[in-house]
Design a protein that fits this description.
487 residues, alpha/beta, Aldehyde Dehydrogenase, Chain A, domain 1, Aldehyde Dehydrogenase, Chain A, domain 2, 2 domains, seven-stranded mixed sheet, six-stranded mixed sheet, 13 helices, 22 strands, globular, binds NADPH dihydro-nicotinamide-adenine-dinucleotide phosphate, binds glutaric acid, Succinate-semialdehyde dehydrogenase (NADP(+)), Ald_DH_CS_CYS, succinate-semialdehyde dehydrogenase (NAD+) activity, Ald_DH/histidinol_DH
């Protein structure tokens, strides 16, 4: 399959290893989920190449970490600018391998670039402290230093932004990084590396390797030179990586599964709530960890919300993400389609009513019709498990306390949303939700300026914002003795 690109060299089929584009005999096909066509064949690398990349990152860090923060920020800014300048090509590559509509891909490129720019600037504000000494001749100086070589394992649902969000703070802090992108979507990652090189990221500081997940991750977690692992993906894999990192006490940041509740209270503006539910639920065909997974509507506005939401869901257009006007592209693979089917069947078998959709879509094997289920019972599967697809299950609840209890009744705690206008209720609900991210009267909460991350089994650490660089820094204190008393 040929993609129409102004810069065809952005489509790479080799890995970026220690500053060189490197292939391998064994290859893995990358396919377009909308059509099944092969777009590229990428290398199958493993532990030896990962080790080489880690060594190169360590070597390159020696100089990079000594450069001024302003200097590093200049490189990150140039990289961000290049991404924006090549937004259209990068978006075509992303839609081809991931399936999301082109408009969403363009938005993701800007989102990804925003982390490079933001963290370049944050790097300039990595301040220390001077603490009054505990004895008259002592002073305590606190300094922050790069944590060391970092490793990143990223998912297929945001092939570029999850890299920007991790590599931005790592490089800004003075670290080097080795990335393993999802096997389904490595081409966006490679394209970012082409532009990183052009922006002046030194050879070796950054590598990006495709291949066997456990081989690459095995080296990342067992190599003592790696001092930090950052992962976005399923809770199951995150737990395994955390266990593996315990060997070397390697620091971990984990951004894992969610099961976001979306609450609509009696005092909500229903038109706003419908708009919010639509954008939160159906972004990337429902394949984000912050997508509304369970929609709870209070009895007094239930019928009104459902009627308006039905009208909105019916208008969603399914198709190839490359086509203008597409709202919902394909799902990533067969398993993803099966999971949506299973959740729909389970809910319906327990008494839910199909209002819109309810089955596969005829655009192709990996398409599923946007589906709205009403009167979903709490025993249904989406109550406890992330669907990761275009299924909107609507539940009814009676009291505010019941709504909060249902929302918190999960092992996950990434994002939650609620619509209400009463001031006292707003604060009460916001404070009661056990989530790292809460959207009030909005279904869109993603921005580089806010701390993104979850509680409970949704993960550890925060990405983005002024807090996001902390995970890439170590704190050291210097205890100075023999300081003369002031005269
Ligand atoms: N928090 C989030 O943003 C995401 C959540 N999910 C959730 O996870 C479910 C499953 O999606 P899936 O793609 O399988 O997610 P995974 O957690 O399997 O994949 C995420 C990343 O982890 C890698 N990986 C997979 N297995 C291992 C392993 N044993 N050791 C180290 N790395 C590994 C993958 O590599 P490779 O691609 O080579 O397998 C990929 O780079 C989704 O339905 C969704 O519920 C999924 C993606 C993102
Ligand atoms: O884990 C995800 O699904 C990616 C985060 C999306 C976002 O930042 O909005």
């Amino acid at each position: 399959m040929t993609l129409s690109l102004s810069r065809p060299d952005l489509l790479k089929e080799d890995c970026y290893l220690a500053g060189e584009w490197t292939g391998s005999e064994q290859r893995i096909a990358v396919t377009n989920p909308a059509t099944g066509e092969t777009i590229a064949n990428v290398p199958k690398m493993g532990a030896p190449e990962t080790k080489a990349a880690i060594d190169a990152a360590e070597a390159a860090m020696a100089d990079w970490s000594r450069r001024t923060a302003k200097d590093r920020a200049g490189v990150l800014r140039k990289w961000a600018d290049l991404m924006k300048a090549h937004r259209d090509d990068l978006a075509v590559i992303m839609t081809a391998e991931q399936g999301k509509p082109l408009g969403e891909s363009r938005g993701e490129i800007d989102y990804s670039a925003s982390f490079l720019e933001w963290f370049g600037e944050e790097g300039k504000r990595v301040y220390g402290d001077i603490i009054p000494g505990h004895q008259p001749d002592k002073r305590i100086l606190v300094m922050k230093q790069p944590v060391g070589v970092c490793a990143a394992i990223t998912p297929w649902n945001f092939p570029s932004a999850m890299i920007g969000r991790k590599v931005g703070p790592a490089l800004a802090a003075g670290c080097g990084m080795v990335i393993k992108p999802a096997t389904a979507t490595p081409l966006s990652a490679f394209a970012m590396c082409v532009l990183a090189e052009e922006a002046g990221v030194p050879k070796g500081l950054l590598s990006c390797l495709t291949g066997g997940a456990s081989d690459i991750a095995g080296e990342m977690t067992s190599n003592f030179k790696v001092r930090k692992l950052t992962f976005t993906g399923s809770t199951e894999v995150g737990a395994k990586l955390m266990a593996a990192c315990s060997e070397n006490i390697t620091k971990v940041s984990l951004e894992l599964g969610g099961n976001a509740p979306f609450l609509v209270f009696d005092d909500a503006d229903i038109d706003d709530a419908v708009e919010g539910a639509l954008s939160s639920k159906f972004r990337n065909a429902g394949q984000t960890c912050v997508c509304a997974n369970r929609i709870y509507v209070q009895a007094g506005v239930y019928d009104q919300f459902l009627e308006k939401f039905e009208t909105a869901v019916r208008k969603l257009s399914v198709g190839n993400g490359m086509d203008e006007g597409t709202d919902i592209g394909p799902l990533i693979d067969r398993d993803a389609v099966e999971k949506v089917k299973e959740h729909v069947e389970d809910a319906v078998s327990k008494g839910a009513r199909v209002v819109v959709g309810g089955g596969p879509d005829d655009h192709g094997d990996l398409f599923y019709t946007p589906t709205l289920l009403a009167d979903v019972p709490v025993e249904a599967q989406p109550s406890t498990e992330e669907t990761f697809g275009p299924l909107a299950p609507v539940y009814r609840f009676e009291t505010v306390e019941e709504g909060i209890r249902l929302a918190n009744d999960t092992v996950f705690g990434l994002a939650a949303y609620f619509y209400a206008r009463d001031y006292a209720r707003v604060m009460h609900v916001a404070e009661s939700l056990e989530y790292g991210i809460v959207g009030h009267n909005t279904g869109l909460i993603s921005t580089e300026v806010a701390p993104f991350g979850g509680v409970k089994q949704s993960g550890l650490g925060r990405e983005g914002s002024k807090y996001g660089i902390d995970d890439y820094l170590e704190i050291k204190y210097l205890c100075m003795s023999g300081v003369e008393a002031r005269s």
